[in-house]
Amino acid sequence: MKYRMVRENRPMLKNYGRWKAVAVHENEVGTARIVKEVCRRAGASRGTVIAVLTELAGVVADHLRAGDSVRLDDVGLLKLEIESRKVDEAGEFRAEEHIRGVRLHVLPECRHGHPVLYQGIKFFEVGRNKTKTRQTRVLGEYSYQFKRDDVQTTAGLAGWPSAVAVRGPCCLQSRRSSRR
Q: In a designed cystine with 161, which of 20, 107, 151, 153 is the match (CB 3.0 to 4.6 A)?
């Protein structure tokens, strides 16, 4: 995974002037490439894969809009979260006025306490010297979990959280791995 170093430039933030890593996304993989790769891996026809992906997207979206959370094996739990402004009294709240938006929250599936999605990630710094990339540590070797005040997160390199803090488990144990 590529990253570049960026200096925080908003003076009102406490980390103003400090440096942080920001993910660099150079490519966007579209449906056509996903279909091609799934066909090759699964030995299914192109039409079948397109039909399954199309229907899967529709079914998942319908459940998310209905307020359900969706658990996909080997992926994790998907759910929609509401972002809203805070009010002093519950009676003052008006959805049209105070709800700012909705965001998709993904809790990756875990095996043996580690998110499968994050295992084996290698980090490469880009941007400072465009001719060189620097390989850094592999996340899977350095990731661990910690629990604080019933808020559990997955910590990555140097102890920095690599997942959003949530109440309860930070990721989902695979049903298959939890039966072992």
A: 153
